[in-house]
Design a protein that fits this description.
mainly beta; globular; about 270 residues
């Protein structure tokens, strides 16, 4: 199905009217997330103890909601009913080796559909990503390193979460620059440092430095990190971005039907 897949995606360059945007004011909503984070810290009995920060992103659209457990504590999930294409704000987590287990909503630890272990350092910022084929979910964790981000710059973490899609080239259309030359499914996320500010981010499917799709990315601040995940949901290309405080931006492109067969690009 690759030729059809590429043909469909390439036709979108002229289909601006099919672009659907939701939650685009990511930066303005950060104040609400800050208030939530402050409340979490106030209710943490061990707030003065060394802690890292963790957030969870669900980018497997064909899967149902999931519960997230930290280590083997089975009395209460760290996050309940996390729906596809949603994420959490940062939550405090103890330093040391942590194991994150993903189970179907309402399930038990023994119902695990995936897990990942990683070391948490004091003050570290970590994202846990649920992605892949709904029948064989994958889980990864990575650190959003911010210490070496230059003043007046932002670090994007870019992740390809669509199993059916070939590698993507990610472009900064506004500044006529390439952020990632070839982003393969499940690899990375790849860090891309660039000048802070709002921009159009382009997706180049045939790697010819011309964007078939563009997404509006708001200014999320200076010396911060912001992950962006790319997947396919119900015949639409989806970009899910997450601000430094966990607020989301979601934009979609509708995949048009093939004029000869009526088929759309293969769903995840």
């Amino acid at each position: 199905m690759r030729p059809l897949f590429f043909a469909l995606w390439a036709t979108l360059a002229a289909c601006n009217g099919n672009k659907d945007e939701t939650d685009t004011d990511m930066a303005d909503a950060d104040a609400d997330a800050d208030a939530d984070a402050d409340a979490d810290a106030d209710t943490d009995a061990d707030a003065d103890q060394p802690r890292g920060n963790m957030r969870i992103i669900h980018v497997a659209p064909g899967a149902g909601p999931v519960d997230i457990y930290v280590d083997t504590r089975s009395d209460m999930p760290a996050k309940q009913a996390l729906a596809p294409l949603e994420g959490s704000s940062f939550r405090r987590v103890e330093v040391g080796k942590r194991t994150i287990t993903v189970v179907p909503d309402g399930g038990k630890l023994t119902d695990s559909v995936g897990d990942v272990s990683f070391n948490v350092e004091d003050g570290g910022r970590y994202s846990v990503v649920v992605y892949g084929d709904p029948k064989a979910l994958q889980v990864l964790a990575y650190e959003e390193e911010v210490a070496d981000v230059e003043e007046d710059e932002v670090r994007y973490y870019l992740f390809h979460a669509a199993p059916a899609a070939d590698p993507l080239r990610i472009l900064d259309v506004t500044n006529k620059a390439t952020l990632v030359k070839s982003l393969a499914f499940g690899k990375g996320p790849v860090a891309a440092d660039t000048e802070s500010g709002a921009r159009e981010m382009g997706i180049d499917l045939d790697l010819d430095d011309v964007a078939e799709f563009t997404f509006d990315v708001p200014d999320v601040g200076d010396q911060v990190t912001a992950p962006f995940y790319f997947t396919v949901d119900d015949g639409e290309l989806v970009m899910l971005g997450v601000s430094p405080q966990g607020m989301e931006i979601t934009e979609r492109w509708k995949l048009p039907a093939d004029p000869e067969t009526g088929d759309t690009a293969p769903p995840i």
